[in-house]
């Protein structure tokens, strides 16, 4: 990128990297650098952020796949996506494989199976309005929707699923709320 | 070409247009109690859809008895906009979420994932490729359609000789090593 300053053209020192219009917030999250850990601290698990923009799919339909994957280990997620019939499943599988490779190469992850999916989200991409022609000269405007997909992989085994809330827990919370009531603006 | 400009009640206009179309074609004779269609414009009724524009489409004059037409206009329509909370409850109901599949195993041959009741995709692709090559050889030997022989076929790879069992059979030579999964009897 940086040419030797003894070259002919004086303007060659300007870096000519392709400037994307906006580097999204999710991509920037990979750039944070923590200060080195003290010897006594527990090891901070590696976090890898990856996303794909402007996928030609609906964000609502993609959300179901993102919800399916949410707390799983990466192997289980890949297995589920491989046998899912949805169009977005193929895209998300590619994203996960890319992220796994990034993790091993750049983010100092030792075992590629030791990752789990901490967050997986969908976002709305740019929509385009088009005409949809009906019979008898009628028309409607349809929108061609696109979506983004964001995933955060964290090193380590997946966390155990939360036990569902029982009635007893809810009753205990209710009683606790009643007990927390106090009189306001009084002696 | 009829290009409709958006009027204040587009659905009502389209509905009225459809009704009028049906009336014109005589598909709805029962409405007017046996009067001969088509009939000329009558009194304009105090319906809820009085739009003063008279554009190139047919005039929307109505029947003598207003209650008949108004009864057609009572179609089911939502009264209130469904809030996003209600929409979310419906869309995220557990019955609508994708279920996780518990019938995924590992193929003992190649080690890829496979569903229990389905053939392994990788192994199937391998076999498909090999059969494609065999079929190409068969095509070269036969040289055209409708030349299939009446005897059985045997596929032999490099370095294999036909045995006594393959006496009267047609022999297809494949110029490569025998794949490990293609067992020779």
Question: Could you describe the 3D structure shown?
Answer:
The complex is a heterodimer of chains A (187) and B (185). By secondary structure, chain A is α+β, with helices and mostly antiparallel strands. Chain A has a domain at 44-157: Ribosomal Protein L22, Chain A. Chain A contains five helices and five strands. In chain A, helix 3 (74-82) runs antiparallel to helix 4 (87-106). The model of chain A has no long low-confidence stretch (mean pLDDT 90). With 185 residues, chain B is α+β, with helices and mostly antiparallel strands. Chain B is built from four helices and four strands. In chain B, a hairpin with a 6-residue loop joins strand 1 and strand 2. The longest helix of chain B is centred in the C-terminal third of the chain and has 22 residues, at 121-142. Chain B is elongated, with a radius of gyration of 36 Å. Residues 58-63 of chain B have low confidence and may be disordered. At the A-B interface, helix 2 and helix 3 of A face loops of B. Chain B: One of its GO terms (cellular component) is mitochondrial large ribosomal subunit.
Question: What attributes characterize this protein structure?
Answer:
heterodimer; A: alpha+beta; 3-stranded antiparallel beta sheet; 30% helix; 21% strand; extended; B: 185 residues; alpha+beta; two-stranded antiparallel sheet; two-stranded parallel sheet
Helix-residue proportion of chain A: 25-40%
Oligomer: heterodimer
- Give the C-level CATH assignment of the domain at 44-157 in chain A: Alpha Beta
Encode the helix/strand succession of chain A as letters.
HEHHHEEEEH
Shape of chain A: extended
On the 0-100 scale, what is the average pLDDT of chain A? 90
Question: From the helix content, strand content and strand pairing of chain A, which structural class follows?
Answer: alpha+beta
Most strands sheet of chain A = 3 strands, antiparallel
Main location (chain A): mitochondrion
Family (chain A): Belongs to the universal ribosomal protein uL22 family.
InterPro entries (chain A): Ribosomal_uL22, Ribosomal_uL22_bac/org-type, Ribosomal_uL22_sf
Pfam families (chain A): Ribosomal_L22 (PF00237)
């Amino acid at each position: 990128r940086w040419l030797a300053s003894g070259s002919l053209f004086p303007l060659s020192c300007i870096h000519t990297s392709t400037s994307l219009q906006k580097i999204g917030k999710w991509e920037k999250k990979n750039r944070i650098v923590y200060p080195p850990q003290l010897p006594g601290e527990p090891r901070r698990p590696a976090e890898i952020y990856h996303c794909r923009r402007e996928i030609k799919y609906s964000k609502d339909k993609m959300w179901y796949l993102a919800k399916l994957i949410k707390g799983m280990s990466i192997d289980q997620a890949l297995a589920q996506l491989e046998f899912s019939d949805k169009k977005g499943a193929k895209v998300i599988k590619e994203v996960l494989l890319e992220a796994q490779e990034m993790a091993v190469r750049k983010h100092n992850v030792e075992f590629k199976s030791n990752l789990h999916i901490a967050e997986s989200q969908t976002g709305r991409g740019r929509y385009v309005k088009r005409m949809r022609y009906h019979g008898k000269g009628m028309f409607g405007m349809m929108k061609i929707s696109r979506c983004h997909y964001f995933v955060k992989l964290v090193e380590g085994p997946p966390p155990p699923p939360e036990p569902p809330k029982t009635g007893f827990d809810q009753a205990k919370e209710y009683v606790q709320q009643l007990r927390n009531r106090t009189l306001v603006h009084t002696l | 070409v009829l290009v409709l400009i958006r009027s204040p009640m587009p659905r009502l206009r389209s509905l009225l247009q459809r009704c009028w179309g049906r009336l014109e074609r005589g598909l709805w004779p029962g409405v007017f109690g046996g009067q001969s269609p088509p009939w000329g414009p009558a009194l304009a009724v105090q319906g809820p859809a009085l739009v003063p524009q008279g554009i190139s489409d047919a005039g929307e004059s109505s029947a003598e008895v207003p209650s008949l037409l108004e009864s057609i206009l009572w179609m089911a329509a939502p009264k209130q906009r469904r809030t996003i909370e209600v929409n979310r409850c419906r869309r995220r109901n557990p019955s609508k979420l994708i279920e996780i599949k518990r019938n995924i195993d590992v193929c003992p041959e190649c080690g890829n994932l496979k569903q229990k009741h389905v053939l392994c995709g990788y192994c199937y692709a391998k076999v498909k490729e090999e059969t494609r090559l065999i079929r190409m050889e068969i095509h070269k030997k036969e040289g055209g359609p409708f030349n299939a022989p009446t005897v059985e076929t045997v596929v032999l790879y490099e370095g294999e000789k036909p045995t006594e069992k393959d006496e009267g059979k047609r022999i297809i030579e494949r110029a490569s090593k025998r794949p490990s999964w293609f067992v020779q009897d």
